[in-house]
Design goal:
The complex is a heterodimer of chains A (about 160) and B (about 240). Chain A is α+β, with helices and mostly antiparallel strands and about 160 residues long. Chain A has five helices and five strands; from the N terminus they run ββαβββαααα. Classes of the chains: A alpha+beta (about 160), B alpha+beta (about 240).
């Protein structure tokens, strides 16, 4: 089946089986390997992308279901090479080690800090509850989110 | 693991969708329960019928004081609905406990109901609300009360060729106490148990094969002392 998707403003069109997952379509057919595959049942959050600006699990969508839709992946956060404030904050606060979970955290956090007027620590922790990290112990991730939210509020 | 091969159909009308069901076909709504089953090959249907393009299956409306929720309504839409928050806030409180935002952006109200997990939040709240479930097939239409709809763990009364199309919740007097509480090991986890309170009516999840509706906890006949104590505390919190 032919699937045509807009990813980060660019058109991708490929022929896939119905059973092809959106996560695998993004990675293997479209060559965008920033989106990672962890658990394949929606629990870990590593596969999180955005559809219409809202976070979704790409491992729980079929590629054919994304036909005609516009997606954003982690590659879309820094389109011209300049880091998104979230990415910059992650860098400064050492919020990544192996980096495997990081794209999922960024895709989840970006709308959370974008849409909130005031985001306290508890709200950040709650927003992140669906993303698992085995390396950092989460503290640095929460701090990076707080820092990025603060910087976005100031601009 | 990846899904086993299947055929795929994306009907655009309910009649078209109903005609495709029956013979080893699974309907696909939000996919947050079905796709994990496909990914692990615990489900291997011949045909997946994608309902997301079917007109008229999603939406939240107040009709003659009652709440009508289309089965394909996203859980996140239920969470944000002013109509729901205004008249049936127990539903909003319950859906906020469902998994995480990314799951709720795709998961549907009807899908959660049809999946019939005995510890799930939406079935529990809907049982407390005495909801009715509208079902369609090529053979006709029927409406089921909650105790007829939820049959066993992960078992609803839906026949293989039937679709849940709409959930109807009766009006509630404005002063009626409504509350929801659950206990899960971490935020967003599947609940060990949950309780929904609507006036004198209490629904318990995770303590039986289906959500249990009671007016007194003794009626629930919970054998396990831990669960009994847990739900007593959850009911207390739901009422607070």
């Amino acid at each position: 089946m032919k699937v045509t998707v807009d990813i980060n403003g660019e058109r991708h069109e490929h022929d896939v089986e119905p059973r092809t997952l959106l996560s695998d379509f993004i990675r293997h057919d479209c060559g965008l390997t920033g989106t990672h595959v962890g658990c394949e049942h929606g629990a870990c959050g590593a596969c999180t992308v955005q559809i219409d600006g809202e976070p979704v699990r790409s491992c729980l969508m079929l590629a054919v279901q994304a036909n005609g839709r516009a997606l954003r992946t982690v590659e879309g956060l820094a389109p011209d090479g300049e880091l998104h404030p979230l990415q910059q904050a992650f860098h400064e606060r050492h919020a990544l080690q192996c980096g495997f979970c990081t794209p999922g955290f960024l895709m989840t956090l970006e709308p959370a800090i974008r849409d909130a007027d005031a985001l306290d620590r508890h709200a950040i922790e709650e927003a992140l509850a669906g993303n698992l990290c085995r390396c950092t112990g989460y503290e640095a991730i929460v701090e990076a989110a707080e820092l990025a939210a603060e910087r976005l509020r100031r601009t | 693991m990846k899904p086993a091969p299947f055929d795929y159909a994306a009907p655009t009308s309910l009649d078209e969708a109903l005609a495709l069901l029956g013979d080893d076909a699974k309907p696909l709504a939000g996919g947050q329960s079905l796709v994990p089953l496909l990914n692990f090959r615990l489900a291997r249907p011949r045909l997946v019928v994608d309902l997301n393009g079917v007109a008229g299956l999603a939406g939240i409306r107040r009709v003659d004081g009652a709440l009508r929720i289309g089965a394909l309504t996203r859980q996140s839409a239920l969470e944000r609905s002013a109509v729901v928050a205004d008249g049936w806030p127990v539903l909003r409180d319950a859906v906020r406990h469902v998994a995480h935002a990314a799951i709720r952006n795709r998961g549907t109200v009807g899908g959660s109901v049809a999946h019939a997990d005995p510890a799930a939040e939406l079935p529990c709240a809907l049982v407390a609300l005495d909801a009715r479930f509208h079902v369609r097939s090529t053979r006709g239409a029927r409406t089921l009360a909650a105790d007829a709809f939820f049959v066993g763990p992960l078992q609803s009364a839906l026949e293989p060729d039937e679709l849940l199309t709409e959930i109807e919740v009766p009006p509630i007097a404005a002063a009626t106490l409504q509350g929801f509480a659950e206990y899960a090991r971490t935020h967003g986890d599947f609940a060990l148990a949950c309780a929904a309170v609507v006036g004198e009516r209490v629904a318990l999840g995770g303590v039986g094969p289906t959500p249990l509706a009671v007016t007194h906890l003794d009626e629930a006949h919970i054998a396990d002392p831990y669960r009994r104590a847990l739900v007593a505390e959850l009911v207390r919190r739901a009422r607070a």
